[in-house]
Amino acid sequence: MPTFKLRMRTSAAILAGAAGLTALGAAAVPTMASAADASPQAIAAQIVPADQLASFSQIVSHESGWNVTATNPSSGSYGLGQALPASKMASAGADWKTNPATQIKWTLDYMNTRYGSPNAAWAFWQTHHWY
């Protein structure tokens, strides 16, 4: 019987601790308002793997200057990653025209699919000045 009481108390303590961690974890997750206020670079730092972020950032800096609505007047490529046609980004979300997180997700997927990683995409970009 004492073992049962000990387990009950231990389980209760674990649950209480987990509830506290959940509360702390929830506070660390950005709210919709804070996410809307975050810069595209800060959003990218949350989405792109750390070991790929510098390369991802280099490409986006060169392609769009981190301007979510950047449009190439001659080709029509659009957004942070300069998608062509721009509507390809709709595969990442209906808000692709204005949401940096959606554009970052699409651009990261494009780099991974076409080149294997942002690092490989950046190596290609450095040689060709496009990706």
Automatic annotation (TrEMBL):
Keyword Signal among UniProt keywords: yes
Domain of life: Bacteria
Residue ranges annotated for the Transglycosylase SLT domain, each copy included: 56-122
Matching InterPro entries: Lysozyme-like_dom_sf, Transglycosylase_SLT_dom_1
Pfam families from the UniProt entry: SLT
SUPFAM superfamilies xref list: Lysozyme-like
Assigned keywords, A-Z: Signal
Signal peptide: 1-35
Protein name: Transglycosylase SLT domain-containing protein
Annotated organism of origin: Kitasatospora aureofaciens
